[in-house]
Amino acid sequence: MNDCRIFQRALRRLRFGVVNGAPVESVGILGSGIMAGGIAEVVARADMRAILRARSEASATASLKGVEKGLARQVEKGKLEPAERDRILANISTTTDLGALGQCDLLIESVVEDLETKQQLFREFDAVTKPTAMLATNTSTLPVVEMAKVVKNPERVCGIHFFNPAQVLPLVEIVRPITASDETISRAADFVSKIGKEGVHVLDRAGFIVNALLFPYLNNAVRMLEDGTASMADIDTAMKGGCNFPMGPFALLDLVGLDTTLSILDTLHASFGDDNFAPRPMLRQLVEKGRLGRKTKAGFYEY
Ligand code: 3HC
Fold it and tell me: Which stretches of 23-156 are assigned E, i.e. beta strand?
């Protein structure tokens, strides 16, 4: 690195307080959905403190209950010692107060896929977090740079994208917006390895790697059903048996959530203008009927 770049970097650190690659010990998780609870569990398992922040006491409690239920199932199956469950739960606390995340080393937002909501949250992060904290979004498809640009120090913002169920799936995408510093990306990679996940690096393009490839496939499964080419059950059986996928596209759509799927496809379609991403009418109809998948006990299938 030449002298000029070293000087500029040192100046930036002085101005913004991005000091070093200090390891992450406490993580604030924003949201109360399935992903937020799953991320909190993953963090707590790796012996870091997880503070789950929800907008209401009721949703914070519901989120924690979801984690407790999953762990209880593991204990019942003999896969987890009760002492280990207690250790994990002791690492998780909940709050409704954003200010309680002030000392966290990393914040991961996992709220609704709505850019304005996320940007507002990032503005609030700026006011409460310590300057060395890393700020991450678990967005599926929204541009990370749009969140980075609303904070005073966009260098510390990146994407840390988990997959559902976060407790089980090994992958995490580390998303680099053009604004992120090398330190931020390297700290994010360290964090991902500390929680025992496999990290892949990707630029800040809609859908990153996985969703850009997965969602046209899911959308085309719906098209095939609409066309009457095959039944839902046979399409699912075909993709499990023919490709060794753990679940077929309709079971997976219900797991991901049809509202989430719709919003991901809308964003991909707007970004790339490719009709392959245009959400199929059947998907919209199910969402309009409130059949959102497993979380509402009905989607393509009934639960
Ligand atoms: N929470 C915690 N643990 C869970 C779980 C959950 N929600 N669901 C399953 N598990 C655990 C089980 O307890 C079990 O663990 P064990 O062997 O230690 O007991 C293990 O996972 C396997 O579960 P099951 O035996 O009950 O069932 P399966 O073997 O059928 O696995 C599955 C279930 C893990 C969901 C598997 O079917 C799978 O991997 N499906 C594909 C999921 C996928 O593709 N996800 C990506 C979606 S896209 C995404 O998330 C991106 C986002 O941006 C939208």
Answer: 26-30, 49-53, 92-95, 106-109, 134-137
pLDDT band of residue 191 (cuts 50, 70, 90) is very high
Residue pair 120/91 in contact (Cβ under 8 Å)? The answer is: no
Q: In the structure, which protein residues have their CB atom closer than 6 angstroms to any atom of ligand 1? A: 70, 73, 77, 79, 140, 163-165, 167-169, 211, 214, 246-247, 252, 256, 260
In sequence order, what are the residues at sequence separation of 6 or more whose Cβ sits closer than 8 angstroms to the Cβ of residue 2?
A: none
Cis peptide before 216 (omega within 30 of 0): no
| Average pLDDT of the residues of the chain | 93
What pLDDT shows up at residue 1?
47
* Segment 81-90 long-range contacts (CB within 8 Å, at least 24 positions apart): 87/47, 88/41, 88/44, 88/45, 89/44
Give the span between the Cα atoms of 24 and 192, in whole angstroms. 10
**What are the strands, taking DSSP E only, across 71-224?**
92-95, 106-109, 134-137, 157-162, 171-176, 198-203
pLDDT for the residue 23: 84
Amino acid at 67: V
Q: Which residue has the tokens 């559902």?
A: 164
Cβ-Cβ contacts under 8 Å for 62 (sequence gap 6 or more): 32
Report, as residue numbers or ranges, the catalytic residues.
140, 161, 173, 211
d(C-alpha 297, C-alpha 299), whole Å: 7
Read off the pTM.
0.91
Closest ligand 1 atom to 38 CA: 1
Q: Tell me: pLDDT of 261 over 60.
A: yes
DSSP category for residue 83: H
* Segment 17-50, tens digit of pLDDT: 444 567 899 999 999 988 999 999 999 999 999 9
- In this structure, what are the phi and psi dihedrals at residue 108, rounded to the nearest 5 degrees? -120, 115
